[in-house]
Design brief:
Length: 459
Amino acid sequence: MSKPEPPNGPASTDPVITARIQAIKQLAQGLSDRVAVMDRSFNVVYANEAAWAETTTRRPHAKCYEAFAHRTDPCGTCPAIKVFEAPGVECVSCSSGGDGTVCGMQQAFPLTSSRGEVDSMLVLFKREQGPMMPDAKPAEAEHPPSAVRESLGDLIGRSPVMQQLFDMTSLVADSSATVLIQGESGTGKELLAKTIHALSNRKDRPFVVVDCGSLPETLLESELFGHVKGAFTGAIANKRGLFEEADGGTIFLDEIADTTPTFQAKLLRVLQEGEIKPVGGTRSLKIHARVISASNKELAELVKAKTFRQDLYYRLAVLPLYLPALRERREDIPLLVENFVAASCIRHHQAVRQVAERTMRALREAPWPGNVRQLQHYIERAVVTTTGPWLVCDDLVSGGMVTEDESLRSASRGAVAQTERTRIVDALQKTAGNRLKAAKLLKISRASLYNKLRTYSIE
């Protein structure tokens, strides 16, 4: 006999909230972790079987404190209220209610409606049991606290904000819902997309990357959707699009904010209909690729400025993830440095180098406007340009003290410029001087490449 479906609270009529709750149901079904969704009145809109297993309160519209804290009255001041009251909150954590009654909530994430308002919240509970019933055994014996992870895929970090990201990434990986990754340049958005793909049941299928900012609109449409012979000048044969190439796998649309309104309208139709039409073609093709998109710009702000379609934004952001800037997780820098030094030493056939305490302190306190990518490039440059068992960063360290901010910024810019020039020269060598192919290899536009060739005086 099958288990009864857990009761849900009042259903939202907002299409975006409905889509997100449906995606969460797909994700949470069968999980041993406890997952729930609550509305602004703290009614339980949805809870998976693992969450309901903690309580006998399964009546419709149950309040969260009734269902999960076994109370008849609300808890004290719950930190989760910040999700609804404080704009811009990405996540809140809770260890106990105001009077010390453990409710079991670990993290709460806002769920935004099509109007841009926080309508509901997704709650992840601790692995430990909630308040013990009279005859219950100690929770720790059955569910020990989960250890801090230092990595997930190629993502690295011990900080609380990265632990939250690891948890959410693990949760969304097996869904087919669209994911929007936002974060500054250099934070690792493509790495996060690859990690989601690697953790999903699509891991043995293709992972296709599209740099939307590096191609003009006409070429981008042809690249994504394909074209038929004779569709335009130069179309001498039929060509499969990247959506077809990603069949059964994942397609990653990087820098989605740089697309034109015309292309956005076509992409919206693809997401709505689940099919593509090659350029110049008359027949539509069904697609079965999961879409992950990324942007280093705040899409919600672009929607307000009417430079990005609102309906497309909500289609892309069913499962939104945010990658923090490096300055927001400085405690991760020593771990990142260790990994980058080891990898660079192996790549350049050197013995593993050690990092002195004062050097690590300087690295940790430097501004790193280019985020993790800039730190990685700086470490590689330091490994290549210094010798000895200790990694020396004289441009960052002076007598054991951090140099002034302006000097740090200059050093960082110099490190990035040197690395960028080296990569451009390498790309030109690999493509026998073909600038178009070199630009594609570097994943930048031809115009950007020409500007950089002039900047670095590369013939």
